[in-house]
Design a protein that fits this description.
The chain has 671 residues and is an alpha/beta fold. It is 51% helix and 10% strand.
């Protein structure tokens, strides 16, 4: 009796083990059998679940590339989660019964490849694809590279794989396509350049003239106002060239940007056709018309026969219950590349239209394990069903996430229990329209280059032009100062009133005195003999101030008054050599050069009395319009700061150059 019992238990255990082992085998075999049947019809099979990225219309493209490998090639384009390992390739090969190179391409890359009965470097080709192509490469781009490496043969393929691994181990290749954010940046940059470049050109034309004048020591000439015949003011011709240049620069920017940023789509995938966007929905709807539970044959099987039988029984029970009705279960992947953009609500909504029958539509994802339920026309609270399903049913738990089948059978059974216990409503309920998904036909279209972002860039370009011009002005000012410091030529007389400071620094006075004295000596030595004694007298007086040594200009004991006197005497001597001699220089600021008129000027802030003195043209304008401010324009000496009239020998300046020479000689005790 015991022997029989043990025998029966052994048989039952063996049967249970056989069943348990056969379940996953049958699950994998079901998927492999379906794919083998498809490859038997066509060696390239493109799933209908990727219309946004790889629509079925690309089947001829993959077939053409497959011929380049040089060996029989079988290609399956499937969703990325539909294959867990390369074991499916062997199963498909066994079911098909033909040798060749078997390749699985997903929605982003060539994911698996294996050769059966042919010589093909599949692993090396996969390595090259990983390292030589950027992440945004289209699956067809990857398959083209894969086929190219296969055709090179094992030896060259191995060398190329090693080279790709070494070259791109830490350096990913540049992206192949631009996205919406890249196009936004391109549009803004184009707009900025389209206004900034012409604006800077228009600002630079007069600025360059001004900088050149300053560098030469002159002041920019003001344009004379005039009128054309008929009384209309004429437009200055000088603006024709800068305006034409600015317009040409703007046109060049726009043309260059249009040529450089010529991409119109972020992917080479062709626009899906309506039949491709409806293909999977039609397939699932046809399946549900025959059976309320449809399981995707392209995906791993997640419901065994017992679970399917129980699910059918629960559906029939719910349909007969009070307030119940039909239940349709679609065990189909939900991915961003499908017609519904991975949105379960949109998928269920479209499926309801295709099936044409009210009921509860359940969407279960065999790849990632999500479950959602949507009521269409039954006496159930649609919002409660959509939002308040238990988390174990909708998302699962740690155990279900680790399981290959995501425990979908157990969780669908729990969902049916939830439906049985759900409160009924007085009238049939239907959810509102789902949020629309991205248009699959236009989702890869890039925004126009000259769109809204371009217009925003136009305004930003004006700000950039202002900043750029300000920076150039600052750099030009610094450059002019540095070039002037390095230049041996003194300033032109016409530039003195505008260029001479009221409160010069000691370094400025030393630099200017050195330049002016050197120029006077050079001019005096090269000038022909003359009866005019003024150049020699000015040179002698300047040297007396320096004890006969020009190097004393840089000596710390040489005071600021002496340096100013050297500058004034040197300029007067050079003017005399050029037959433009003068005796009176500006009494407000001797550094302004020769006087041009006499005027009543207040030279002291403490004293209100005015003096009738000689002044330059610039000071005459100030004395006329800003008489009360004239004391602030009187030359002040540094270290310590005092008015020049309070220091010897400069107190003699208002009385003329001759008196200044005499004062220098008196101080040096020279007769």
């Amino acid at each position: 009796m015991r022997v029989r019992a043990f025998f029966v238990l052994g048989v039952l255990a063996a049967l249970f083990a056989t069943f348990a082992a056969a379940t996953p085998a049958r699950a994998a075999d079901t998927q492999a059998a379906y794919l083998a049947d498809r490859l038997r019809e066509n060696p390239v099979y493109v799933s209908d679940q990727l219309p946004r990225e790889v629509p079925k219309s690309m089947t001829p493209d993959f077939a053409e590339v497959a011929k380049r490998t040089g060996v029989p090639t079988y290609v399956m384009v499937l969703p990325s989660g539909a294959v867990n390992d390369d074991g499916l390739l062997g199963a498909v090969h066994d079911r098909l019964g033909k040798d060749g190179l078997f390749v699985i391409v997903d929605d982003s890359s060539v994911s698996y490849a294996e050769a059966f009965g042919v010589r093909a470097p599949a692993d090396d080709a996969l390595t090259v694809c990983i390292y030589e192509l950027p992440y945004d490469a289209h699956p067809l781009d990857e398959f083209k590279l894969f086929a190219e490496v296969i055709a090179q043969g094992p030896e060259k393929a191995a060398q190329r794989a090693d080279a790709a691994r070494d070259k791109h181990a830490d350096d990913e290749p540049d992206e192949m396509y631009v996205g919406p954010s890249d196009r936004e940046n391109q549009s803004i940059l184009t707009g900025v350049l389209a206004t900034a470049v012409p604006a800077v050109i228009l600002l630079l034309f007069p600025a360059v003239r001004r900088w050149r004048q300053k560098l030469k020591g002159g002041t920019p000439k003001k344009a004379k106002k005039g009128k054309k015949k008929g009384g209309k003011a004429g437009r200055p011709r000088r603006w024709i060239a800068p305006t034409a240049t600015a317009l040409a620069a703007c046109a060049a920017v726009l043309l260059t940007a249009g040529a450089a940023f010529d991409q119109t789509r972020s992917s080479p995938a062709p626009r899906p056709r309506a039949m491709e966007l409806n293909a999977r929905l039609d397939r699932v709807a046809e399946g549900l018309a025959e059976d309320p539970v449809y399981t995707d044959p392209e995906s791993p099987r997640v419901l065994d026969d017992a679970q399917l039988a129980r699910l059918h029984s629960r559906i029939e029970k719910f349909e007969r219950s009070e307030g119940g009705g039909p239940v349709f279960v679609a065990v189909v992947p939900q991915i961003s590349e499908d017609e519904s953009e991975g949105d379960e609500e949109n998928f269920a909504y479209a499926l309801h239209d295709k099936v044409g029958q009210d009921g509860v539509y359940i969407v279960a994802d065999p790849l990632y394990g999500g479950i959602d339920a949507f009521n269409h026309g039954l006496r159930l609270d649609s919002l409660d069903l959509f939002l308040d399903l238990p988390e174990f049913i909708t998302y699962g738990d740690d155990k279900s996430r680790d399981a290959e089948d995501h425990l979908l059978g157990e969780r669908l059974d729990a969902l049916m229990t939830h439906l049985d216990e759900a409160p009924r409503t007085d009238a049939p309920d239907t959810p509102g329209d789902p949020y629309p998904v991205t248009n699959p036909v236009t989702e890869d279209d890039l925004p126009p280059l000259f769109g809204d972002d371009f217009q925003g860039g136009l305004f930003l370009g004006l700000l950039v032009a202002g900043l750029a011009y300000g920076l150039l002005e600052a750099l030009a000012a610094i450059a002019i100062v540095l070039l002037r410091r390095r230049s041996k030529a003194p300033l032109l007389t016409s530039a003195l009133p505008a260029s001479s400071p009221t409160k010069p620094t000691a370094s400025y006075l030393r630099r200017t005195a050195r330049t002016e004295l050197r120029a006077l000596k050079a001019d005096f030595e090269s000038a022909p003999p003359s009866s005019d004694p003024r150049p020699g007298d000015c040179l002698d007086a300047a040297l007396l101030l320096l004890e006969g040594d020009p190097a004393r200009i840089d000596h710390p004991d040489t005071d600021s008054a002496a340096l100013v006197a050297v500058i004034v005497l040197s300029r007067a001597g050079r003017a005399a050599l050029g037959h433009k001699g003068y005796n009176r220089c500006c009494a407000v600021n001797p550094l302004h050069g020769p006087a041009v008129t006499r005027h009543q000027v207040r030279l002291s802030a403490e004293r209100k009395a005015r003096r009738h003195v000689h002044i330059c043209g610039a000071c005459r304008e100030k004395a006329t319009s800003e008489a009360s401010t004239m004391p602030t324009h009187v030359l002040a000496l540094p270290d310590p700061p005092v008015r020049y009239l309070e220091a010897e020998p400069l107190d003699a300046v208002p009385d003329g150059i001759r008196r200044l020479i005499e004062k220098v000689r008196e101080m040096a005790h020279v007769p």
